[in-house]
Amino acid sequence: MIARYSGGESGARAAARAGAVVVDAFRASTTIAVLVSKGARVVPVASVEEAASAETDFHIGERGSAKVAGFDFGNSPTEILGSQIPPGSTVALSTTNGTRLVEAAGGARAILTGAFVNAGVIAEELAGGACEGAEVVVLGCGWEGRRTSEDEAAAGAIFDRLRSRGAELDGRARRVVEEYLSRSARTLRNNSAARRLKRLGYEGDLDFCLAEDTVPVVPRRVGDAFVG
C-alpha cells in the first residue's frame, strides 16, 4: 500500500481515485468516532440549513467552534459521549471544516474518518485493505483553508502506525510523521484551535481529542452516512 498526505478541499478532490481518510482532530472526526461507537448513523452535511432540515433523530453542528443555535448538540465529543443518544439513531452533523471536506472527497473509492482516538484501528483496517485499492490519501481538514498542527499530528499518528504495518509513505506523509513524533501534546493544547475551544468553554474536549486509541472504531461512509 502507498499512503499519501494531502490537505483541504483541493486535496480531497484530488484523492477521488484512492481511498480517503478525513482527519479533523478538533473535533469532527473525533465526534463521528464517538457517535459511531454509540451505534449511531452519522449523516455529514456541508450547510447548517441542510442539517437543520434533515429528517433525522438528532441535529449536531457548529460554526466557528460554537454550537449552532437550535441544534441538539454542538460538535463536542465529550458532550455526546455523556448524552442519551440511543443505538440505531440517525444524526445530521454539520461542521465548519470536517463535513465540507467529506463532501469534497465524495468521489473517493472509500471514505473513512480518523483522529488520535482511533488512529491505531484505522491503520489496522487500512493495512487490511479497507480502501479496496493500493493507495490511500489521509486528508487533513485544516481551518478555513489553512493548515492546522492538530490535523497534521493526528494524520502522523495514523501514518506512523501504517508504516509499522509495511505501508510505503510518500514524502509529505513521512514529514508529517516526523512532526507528529517531535510535537508535544502540550504544544497542541495551546495552538490557535485549542485556544478558541478554551474560550468557548470546551477545554475538556482537548484532552479527549488528544488521547490516542481510546475510541477503537472505524467510521466508514456507506451511502449517505458514516457507520461502524
What is the topology?
Layout lengths: L1 E6 H7 L4 E5 L4 H10 L3 E4 L3 H6 L4 E6 L2 E2 L9 H5 L8 E5 L3 H7 L5 E5 L4 H9 L7 E6 L8 H16 L3 E2 L1 H12 L2 H4 L3 H8 L3 H8 L9 E3 L2 E3 L1
Parallel strand pairs: 1-8, 1-9, 2-7, 2-8, 3-6, 4-6
Antiparallel strand pairs: 4-5, 10-11
EC number: 3.1.3.71
Pfam family, one: 2-ph_phosp
Keywords: Hydrolase, Magnesium
Structure description:
This protein is an alpha/beta fold and 228 residues long. The chain has one domain: ComB-like (putative 2-phosphosulfolactate phosphatase, Alpha-Beta Complex). The protein has 11 helices and 11 strands. It has a 5-stranded parallel sheet with strand order 7-2-8-1-9, sandwiched between helices. A 4-stranded mixed sheet has the order 3-6-4-5.
Number of domains: 1
**Oligomeric state, counting identical vs distinct chains:** single chain
In DSSP terms, counting alpha (H) and pi (I) runs of 4 or more, how many helices? 11
CATH top level? Alpha Beta
Number of strands: 11
- CATH level-3 fold name: putative 2-phosphosulfolactate phosphatase
Structural class determined from secondary elements: alpha/beta
Radius of gyration: 16 Å
The CATH H-level homologous superfamily:
ComB-like
User: Quick one: overall form?
Assistant: globular
Helix content: 40-55%
Low-confidence stretches: none
CATH architecture: Alpha-Beta Complex
